[in-house]
Write a structure and sequence with these properties.
This protein is of the alpha/beta class. It has 14 helices and 7 strands. The strands form 2 sheets. It has a 5-stranded mixed beta sheet with strand order 3-4-5-7-6, covered by helices on one side. Strands 1-2 form a two-stranded parallel sheet. Strand 3, helix 13 and strand 4 (about 400-405) form a beta-alpha-beta unit. The chain is elongated, with a radius of gyration of 38 Å. The protein starts with a helix and ends in a 41-residue tail after the last strand.
């Protein structure tokens, strides 16, 4: 471990790591994933510049070009200190040329070393300053005027301020104050017990400047740490919100499937109770097995009711569900436990309610229903309901088309809306709609695609297998129209070209 890292090294700032968000509908059944698109030139340039500097990089150097600039600037400043300081030490303090330039180059090297290793740089800078003061002390006895500055000369004062500033940016406040205290103690020993003759005292001024450098560095470091903690907390909050959203949607789906599971368990219980009466002289072993089946079914029903009670008591009622009949209730709300679950036969009533709310909805039904399981019909109804709810909320005044295709291996649902014809009001919804669709389809082994159309509308397309289990890849049905050709250009809306310029509304 490096000395800087051991003392709580300052962590350079950078953008928060992106939160992985599931993308809906990018993998359509029967189609291969698209080839990766090469990164644009601007992204390659940003990658080369670098947005993740190492812990040893200069503070506040987020990009590589800024780090290079810091290195060059500090290098040129160190070179100026070495050349100018060596000349001043040789002429004003009577040091030999070699000793003067050696002391000046030590100070310049410490200033550059502080970019990576501030603690060793502090030791080098303070040692070089004390040595320079001791070597210049004999010359002060022969000076007839007031004398030059001592014990801190200009070639030692400026580099040591830079070293203390960089140290305060990297280490904790206690470490920076310790470095300031050691520097102050060395100044007191040089100017007090040791002392010199005929010099201009710089001890008090130097300690004051060093204190200002430490104060500035510590303040910047504290601000940067607070910003890092805020970014980290924001990231954690976003991750927790996404995780909670997913769990709430799954909880709601589990509550809705309660009636389906309870119905099957009830049928099993009744059949097990009636079966012995359908056989002449049933054996005791058969009666015992059927009684065990009925008992297990009743016990499973009891446990299922307990689980449902836990799920329903986890969240309060949702007041928005009563105001908006076209959206799914929030987690914890919804129909009572004994309310019948919707199916495909109730789609017509759902579409009529949506028309009454002000949307122009057309339907297209192809094929005949093929006896889907209750879970498939429930999920299909909810997907269409959520698609209509999104269109009603995010695309007011639009034209909506609902397509239901009954295929041999499943059902294809498609809800497409045109661009909104009225101003879109801010939505008070929870934003769980597409996530809920994806969870419902994934539960049955299906897929959901959500994408904007070329004319500013939006399309939601889902495929649910007939048996509720994943199917092998199959080609996309050729008779389904592409969403961008469903709606022709609106003649009374000349301000919108064929290719939309804004973001998709739903």
């Amino acid at each position: 471990m490096t000395p800087a890292a051991a003392d709580g090294e300052f962590a350079p700032q950078g953008p928060p790591a992106p939160i992985p968000v599931p993308v809906l509908g990018r993998d359509v059944p029967g189609k291969e994933a698209p080839a990766p698109v090469p990164a644009p030139r601007r992204s390659r340039v940003r990658s080369w510049l670098g947005e993740n500097p190492s812990p040893q990089s200069p503070p506040f150097s987020k990009y590589r070009w800024l780090r290079l600039f810091t290195y060059l600037f500090t290098g040129y400043a160190g070179l100026a200190v070495a050349l100018g300081g060596g000349t001043e030490l040789s002429e004003s303090y009577g040091l030999t040329t070699s000793v003067a330039f050696l002391a000046a180059f030590l100070q310049a090297g410490a200033m550059v070393l502080a970019l990576w290793r501030p603690l060793p740089a502090l030791a080098v800078s303070l040692s070089a300053a004390v040595l320079t003061a001791l070597l210049a002390r004999p010359h002060l006895e022969s000076v007839h005027s007031a004398g030059p500055n001592w014990p801190w000369t200009t070639p030692t004062l400026l580099p040591h301020m830079v070293v203390l500033l960089l140290l305060a940016l990297r280490v904790r406040l206690g470490g920076a104050l310790t470095a300031l205290l050691v520097t102050t103690l060395a100044t007191y020993v040089l100017q007090g017990p040791i002392g010199a003759q005929r010099y201009s005292s710089t001890g008090v001024m130097a300690v004051a400047l060093f204190s200002v450098a430490v104060l500035i560095g510590s303040a910047l470091r504290g601000r940067s740490e607070a910003r890092s903690q805020l970014i980290q907390q924001t990231t954690i909050t976003a991750e927790e919100r996404a995780r909670r959203t997913l769990l709430e949607e799954r909880s709601r789906i589990a509550r809705e499937l309660h009636d389906v599971v309870a119905h099957h368990m009830s049928v099993i219980s009744i059949q097990a109770q009636v079966a012995p009466h359908l056989v002449e002289n049933p054996s005791e072993e058969l009666k015992e097995n059927l009684a065990g089946i009925r008992g297990n079914a009743l016990e499973a029903l009891t446990e299922l009711r307990r689980v449902l009670g836990v799920l329903r008591s986890e969240f309060p009622d949702d007041p928005e569900a009563a105001e908006d009949p076209y959206r799914l209730a929030a987690p914890g709300a919804g129909p009572a436990p004994d309310a019948p679950q919707p199916n495909l036969a109730r789609l017509d009533a759902l579409i009529e309610n949506t028309r009454a709310a002000g949307l122009d909805v057309s339907t297209a039904l192809r094929g005949e229903p093929r006896g889907y399981p209750p879970g498939v019909e429930l999920s299909a109804y909810r997907i269409v309901q959520e698609g209509l709810s999104n269109a009603l909320r995010h695309a007011p005044g639009s034209t909506v088309r609902v397509e239901v295709d009954h295929l041999s291996d499943g059902i294809v649902l498609c809800v497409v809306n045109s661009r909104p014809r009225q101003p879109v009001q801010p939505s008070p919804g929870t934003g769980h709609g597409l996530l809920g669709m994806r969870e419902r389809a994934a539960m049955l082994g299906g897929k959901v695609t959500a994408a904007p159309t070329l004319r500013g509308g939006f399309m939601v397309r889902a495929f649910l297998p007939k048996t509720g289990t994943p199917l092998p890849p199959r080609p996309e049905p050729p008779h389904l129209p592409r969403p961008e050709f469903i709606f022709p250009p609106l003649p009374d809306d000349p301000d919108h070209p064929e290719s939309p310029t804004g973001e998709p509304t739903p």
